[in-house]
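Chain A, query sequence.
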Amino acid sequence: MRKSNITKWIEENQDKFTNVAKQIWDHPEVGYNETFASSLQIKTLEEAGFKVYTGLGDVQTAFVAEYGKGKPVIGILGEFDALPGLSQQVTPNQAPVIPNGPGHGCGHNLLGTAGVEAVIALKESIEAEMLPGTIRYYGCPAEELLSGKTFMARAGVFDDLDCALTWHPGNNNLTSNFRTQALTAIEFFFSGRTSHAGAAPHLGRSALDAVELMNVGANYLREHVPDGTRIHYQITDGGMAPNIVPDHASVYYFLRGADRKQVDELEERLLKVAEGAAMMTETSVRWEIKSGCYDTLPNETLNELMYKQSDAAGTMVFTPDEEKFAEELRQTIDPSVLEAAKQLFISSGDTNVLDGGFYHPRKLFGKTMGGSSDVGDVSWIVPMGQIMATCAPQGVQFHTWQATASFGSSIGMKGMHYAAKIMALSAYDLLNDQNGILEKAKAEFTASKRGSAYKPGIPAEVKPPVPKEKTVPVPAI
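Chain A, predicted structure.
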């Protein structure tokens, strides 16, 4: 019956957290600029009696909220950054709130708020039952830049946790038994010599030529890298005008691989390509590492624990209006995308536009998916359990306007409350750990690392970006 107190509390207080998530959705902020979102979450947690520590890892918007004392120390991870260019109203047709403005196309307005909701619900049980242990909520910025948690990890803020729990909005309720890819983000800056491109091109040394030659070399490199490796790039500076030989140009690369070692080796090879391009063009090159996150280590023990909470959490049920909205939203998606998405469906059938079931796909355990997340860093420091929750219709892809619409809708909010229940119930079991779950999770964690130790992928000399100055509305709860 004690678990029922947690779910009852969340159900009775869900409007408050829906309001928090909607306010963050209404004030989308990109990485390292999430001052509204972090302020609102801090205010909510402080009013609930949590002690809050801010500015972690020299990141202005990073914080941790703590309640309780002693062992075990259970962390719940949250995020709150938005994506550029994905502004969208909660409608089944493309209609940005602000043209080219940011939007929550990955649902981080929900992700962080569910963590806040979970720890506050759990605090109520700790007080009522006088449970030992410490719970923490980690407000983690800039996940979309794949570096917020890395800066926090570099500062050691996760080191004393016994385990961590987290989730992500998705198209199904399921345990995240898969791995994500390790990644390094690195920008190259070439410097040359300017000249008149028509009258005296022979006097110039083109930095743009160096960028283009580097990209050609990187494209040839693709044939000689391990399967599953990814190399993406964007020219971030191509010069000023066609009739000026550019003395500066830059290109931004993402390198992905199955693990940190694979990406580090790929980085070494790409640096040689950059140096070769500089040599060929008689230019110079320097580079800056922007992020360096790890692959994610799934923990079957903790994922199994989270899956077992489904009975206590109840079943997600969607209204006819939500079903109608979901179907209309799917009509805007290219049929080829919907067909490809069917291959990823976890449920027993692909007819459910909104799926309220909860799945534990053991066949995916340890398999590597194509994306990356700085949550991987935490998974290499402590055992980490993770789920996904239904916050969007089947077929809706992350980082699209359809996703932004979903994550601002009642469908997204419903998935958020479900995730909060799963995390709070799981943490409750860990605080009442009479079956040795934590020790089993730690043993699995140690085995999965195979003797490798965590070393931050961002060098010590690289500092977090300075946020842009802006006027921040006063958050209301």
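The domain at 2-179+295-449 is CATH 3.40.630.10 (Aminopeptidase). The chain has 14 helices and 14 strands.
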